[in-house]
Amino acid sequence: MSTHYDVIIVGAGITGASTAYHLKQFGVKRVALIERGQPASGGTGKSAAIVRQHYSTPIMARLARDSVDMFAAMRQELGADGGYVNSGYCFLLTAEMLPGARKNVAMQQGLGIDTRFLDDQERDQRMPWLNTEGVAGVVYEKRGGYADPVQTTEAYVGAFQKQGGEVRLKTPVRELTRDGDRITGVILDDGRLAAGAVVNAAGPWAKYLAESARLELQMRSIREQDLVWQARQGRPVPNMSVSNGVDAIYLRPLGDGRFILGRGFPKPYTDVDPYNYKETADDDFIAEVQERAERRFPPLAGMKLLQHYSALYDVTPDWYPYIGPRTGIQGYYDGSGGSGHGFKIGPAIGKELARWIATGEVAEDFAPLTYDRLAAGRLYNQSFGGNRG
Questions:
Q1: What is the spatial distance between Cα 324 and Cα 349, in angstroms, rounded to a whole number?
Q2: What radius of gyration, in Å, describes the C-alpha atoms of the chain?
Q3: Domain check: are 333 and 248 in the same one?
Q4: What is the pLDDT of residue 385?
Q5: How does DSSP assign 176-202, residue by residue?
Q6: Residue at 324 is within a domain
Q7: 120 φ, ψ to 5°?
Q8: Nearest-angstrom CA–CA distance, 224 and 285
């Protein structure tokens, strides 16, 4: 194995894996992807992995749109299936949400996204499992659905390796090395590796890695709970991914009458130590989500809980990721802060970031995602027009 690389990526979640693959696509020769566990063993692997494009800002909608194209083309491009299922996606709205949703849908349609409001007749045809009480509108995305977060990440890692990229698993990065205003590499348990550039894609652990080189990284680690259920046999259960803004829950099918349920925005958020947190769900959370789901989706009554767990969100002050270089420090790129959206936009983020690193070129709408926005006071708004999940 080499000890000097053009680029080292720390973290083999969806963003790190996509960045590594696309760096090779852009012709970067010596690239290493280093992961403390296995691919997708952090926040990515426990993502609900809902695929949707319903966002309230053009940059998020555009990245989600591009990622949908990449999910759909994965088998052809990477030679591996990421588990993308084009089941459709819907967003259930209260009356108060309608004005904002109309603006969002118009913006998304302007970006070429196939999204629209369903009339009552089509809603009832597509969603015989829905209790429509309190539902003032439904937005539907034809190309929405879900994917398998582990399969998707492994597909990028495998394609990266086939192009000559080096992967080091079960290899914690202890520190970044710094010489003046330049990041020069990383320290592992068995020595140092030098690099022309380092991408910090360590997710909830990215803050600590940045601080090892005296770099500030304002980011919280938040515990996110999810539940896996089995519906009673023969019931007409939801067959598409659902962001339920009326009851603040989300649902993602798993097939064979199984599905993931979680709480959507708004909800309480609990900050945790990413090295030491409760990895199962709370009893009161389970009871609350079950009650909301069975009320909104009556055929789920009597469903059986199969599994429950907690994941981590790496959350920034404005809930948008930190991506790209920083003023005043060379050889360093942020690639974390997915804030619960990282999986659905990760493929496109990796491609955009790899282009930036390899060519110095960056899309006009992508450049403002850098960490520099904090000092400049250019935070994004926090209205996403949909549940996080």
A1: 10
A2: 21
A3: no
A4: 42
A5: EEEETTEEEEEEETTEEEEEEEEEE--
A6: yes
A7: -60, -40
A8: 11
Residues 131-175: tens digit of each pLDDT: 999 999 999 999 999 999 999 999 999 999 999 999 999 999 999
What values do phi and psi take at 172, rounded to 5? Answer: -65, 140
- Determine the straight-line distance between the first and last CA of the chain, rounded to whole angstroms: 38
Task: Give the residue among 89, 98, 92 at the shortest CA–CA distance from 52.
Answer: 89
- pLDDT tens-digit map of 204-225: 999 999 999 999 999 999 999 9
Q: Quickly list H helices, 230-317.
A: 283-296
Give residue 308's domain range. 88-142+221-315
H-helix or E-strand containing 175?
A: strand 173-179
Q: By C-alpha distance, which of 21, 28, 26, 33 is closest to 79?
A: 21
Q: pLDDT category, 93, cuts 50, 70, 90?
A: very high
170 and 201 co-located in one domain: yes
For residues 154 and 207, membership in a common domain is answered with yes
Distance CA 86, CA 371 (A): 34
Tokens 């680029």 sit at which residue? 7
The secondary structure of 4-28, three-state, reads EEEEEEECCCHHHHHHHHHHHHCCC
CB atoms within 10 A of CB 247: 21
Same domain, 310 and 171: no
Residue 118, classed as helix, strand or coil, is: coil
pLDDT surpassing 70 at residue 308: yes
SS3 243: strand
Residues 198, 201, 204, 210, Cα dihedral to 10°? 20
Q: Which of 315, 334, 361 is the last residue of a domain?
A: 315
The predicted model scores a pTM of 0.96
Residue 266 has a pLDDT of 83
Strands 220-230 and 241-244: unpaired
